[in-house]
Amino acid sequence: MIISVKEIRNFLISVLIPLIVGYASSFISQLLAGVEISTYYSQLIKPGFAPPSFIFPIVWTILYILMGISAYKIMKKGYELQKVKDAMFYYWLQLALNFMWSILFFGMDLRFTALVTLVVLFIVVVVMVIKFAKIDKKAAYLNIPYIIWLLYALALNYFIWMINR
Predict the structure, then answer these.
(1) Are 25 and 99 in contact (CB under 8 A)?
(2) Cα separation values, 124 from 89, 110, 116, Å
(3) How confident is the model at residue 165 (pLDDT cuts 50, 70, 90)?
(4) In a designed cystine with 68, which of 3, 15, 61, 151 is the match (CB 3.0 to 4.6 A)?
(5) Are 41 and 53 in contact (CB under 8 A)?
(6) What is the pLDDT of residue 17?
(7) Rounded to the nearest 5°, which phi and psi values hold at 81?
(8) pLDDT tens for each residue of 98-149
(9) Domain range list for the chain
(10) Is 3.50.50.60 the CATH classification of the domain at 5-163?
(11) Is-contact 128 63, C-beta < 8 A?
């Protein structure tokens, strides 16, 4: 099987988009907070199950790559199809909510608003995965680690909000 330059380009763009969105969100959060995100995080009172700050960029990089690969697999089915457009709507919506979360949590110090955003993000991601599964099951499965991480992030965000009010 020969892979075209166009397919390689589309794949790379699909993977780069969530990476760029994620790192842009982190950059904006840091600017708004006026301090490194890892420093901000280290100053919070956290529950015992909170990971060290160096874990977050590793996990999010992996999740963004998986997200991009899954979006590529869905888009490859044909954007002209209504079910692909519908599924991708939820993909873009979750990416926008994901972008907003760290800005709310770190950049604006709005932990409860970030928690509400995270609940909505979780619901949107579940809907997205269901829609992806109807088009390409492997694309849906690539987002299972994301759902698991979001559940963990929900618990972490909740307890940090409660402890640091």
Answers:
(1) yes
(2) 10, 21, 12
(3) confident
(4) 15
(5) yes
(6) 98
(7) -75, 135
(8) 999 999 999 999 999 999 999 999 999 999 999 999 999 999 999 999 999 9
(9) 5-163
(10) no
(11) no
